[in-house]
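Structure ticket #2291
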Amino acid sequence: MSEICRKDSLARNLNRMIRLFPKDYNIFPKTWCLPSDWNDIQNYAKKHKSKTFIIKPDNGCQGRGIYITKNAKDIRPVENMICQVYISKPFLIDGYKFDLRIYVLLTSCDPLRLFVFKDGLVRFTTCSYIEPNQRNVHDMYMHLTNYAVQKHSEGYIRDNEEGGTKRRITTLNRWFKDNGYDVKKNFDGAIYLGC
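Resolution: structure written out below.
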């Protein structure tokens, strides 16, 4: 189970899969494991000077220890972390970043058998999104969707189904439908990628 629950193991496995099946696994940002990949990050940054990076503890949670930088020299090579190219132009809803918390029950690996709960959570940031720059890379209320981070924001809205910081996926599906997106196609595609 740790192969998919720890950020470093998941990164290694996804990187292995993208090397084997580049067209099928081009679904996640470029990711490195520190400290072993530190030189690769520095070489990548020299060729891609405009990139922003997000660095996370390999086994962390609740947004602790995460930082964002536009300068690869700020990336510390001595800790067990993962480093990813930051998605600087994410899909936004009403100007805010969000993530999906989808609940999956895995009952067997061989044969693969899993069950996906059709409702889950949509977690929003409390500050509207602006592309990362030197002035806002430290604004975790803009960049991270973690509840443990957002609940401390003055902009955090509790228990409001339509406009709260944490909403049900059924609310998101209504937003998609109201804005011309095919809910079934989008949700089924997200489930496929998650599997």
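Closing remark: The chain has seven helices and nine strands.
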